[in-house]
Amino acid sequence: MRDTVVNSNKYYSKAPGFVVTINGTDFANGNVYKTHDFPPRSLPADVKVVFMFGNPMNAAVSSFKAFAGPGRQHYVHAHSPFADEHENLFERDVLLMEKQFRAWMQPHEFKFCAVRYEALGDNSVRDQLAQFLNCEMRFPEFQERESSWLNHERRPELERTYGRLAEDMESFPAITVFPAKEAPGGDLQVEMNPTG
After folding, report:
1. pTM of the prediction?
2. How much of the chain exceeds pLDDT 70, in percent?
3. Which residue would you say has higher pLDDT here, 30 or 88?
4. CB distance 132 to 1 below 8 Å
5. Residues 169/148, Cβ–Cβ less than 8 Å
6. How far apart are CA 162 and CA 147, in angstroms?
7. How confident is the model at residue 138 (pLDDT cuts 50, 70, 90)?
8. Does 142 have pLDDT greater than 80?
């Protein structure tokens, strides 16, 4: 997503590094950042956030291969204390994907957009995302994840561990714009599109 925004618009550039913790980050105008952090308490009014979520079983298969080596920096990025339990990724949500999804998928003190990865091939989702970001976007051809849980040898474990979360994610709209929380007593309206 970050590369799509940067490659589509001359006004944006890729921020250096990876944002581990959003709270306290000094955001520079025109930069596009990447993080796996949980929602911050607040954000400057000009910062736009896109929370991307996708099938957790595919994410687990992909993560198992990608983060099997030493260091396992992704656990630090995901704020998970379970790097030493990487081998248990199919039996237990050691990357805290459910906790992160539930934390994000509700109104916060800032406006943000939530998009399902598997829906990025849908032109209406792409159009709504570009509208939310208020910028032209030229998307590359959508590519399915290389890692699939469907034919994975540990499919039963994946379904037990992540099946309910996958169903919850699938039941959510393909793209949702959450407005900033209203002051107590105010009305809150969430914009949802059932595409996907």
Report:
1. 0.83
2. 81
3. 88
4. no
5. no
6. 15
7. confident
8. no
Whole-number Å distance between alpha carbons of 157 and 173: 26
User: What does the angle CA 152 – CA 58 – CA 141 come to, to the nearest 5 degrees?
Assistant: 120
- Residue 180 has a pLDDT of 93
Q: Count CB-CB contacts under 10 A for residue 46.
A: 7
Residue 160 has pLDDT above 50, yes or no: yes
Residues 6+ apart with CB under 8 A from 90: 60, 64, 154, 157, 158, 161
Nearest by Cα to 19 from 79, 99, 98: 79
